[in-house]
Amino acid sequence: MPPKKPRSSWSPALKAFGNALRKFREELGWTQEQVGAKVPISGSYIGQVELGKTRCRREVALSLDAILGAKGVLVTLWDDLVMDAAYPTWFDWPTIEAQAAHLQTYQCLVVYGLLQTPEYARALLGDEESVHARMARQEILTRDDPSPPRLTVIMYEGVLHNLVGSKEIMREQLAKLLDAMSSRVVIQIVPTRIPLAGTAGSFVIATLRDTTKVAYAETAARGFTLGDPEDVLSLEESFDDIRAAALPSDMSADLIRKVMEERWT
């Protein structure tokens, strides 16, 4: 069986806009950081736009057009290419995840990937390459520049009870959840049966630094990246409904500790 062809991490429409942005920037001899400072957004964000790895808001396109003296070209391209260029379902999620200012996720089967221990991930994934990639993704939570995203995790209580690997692995994993809880990492547990809004499966909503929102929904076969505003709004409403059934953070911590001590000791 031939090896699976890796998926592209950029959208052709977004890349076309990015190419035009880079052309105007280079004609002025400016760096990405210099252009970003004038908007103001980060130079790394300008780089992501130029590579077609993210879509900027129209307001940003307007600012860039004026700053670079593009005479309406960038705005026209945005209207023609970017406005309707919803993230393709195959779009590489870690690329978006790394740009997030806030991540909100509901998990009903396993611990969220950004909070997994290596042993827990290994029991789920099996191969070391996948484990290494998952651990590398977690670096966004401890980075300095840009600042790490805020993380809000709503988790069904059954995740705490489902055996993954061994008792030792589960105890270590629950301990990590407790250690991770902070002002920037909120974990809340839904202690009763899964709310109706959560029966469709796990999902993540990423709010990017320009306030664009993108979502990732999991299915049995694979995950899908969703950029259509209606799709994202639907998941936001589901998230709010599920969160309404969750315990506050302090009570969630007590429940995690109780399960860790009573079930996994």
From TrEMBL:
Which GO MF terms are attached to this record? DNA binding
Q: Which SUPFAM superfamilies match?
A: lambda repressor-like DNA-binding domains
What are the residue boundaries of the HTH cro/C1-type domain, all occurrences included? 21-74
The record's Pfam families line, in alphabetical order, gives:
DUF5753, HTH_31
This chain belongs to which protein, by name?
Answer: XRE family transcriptional regulator
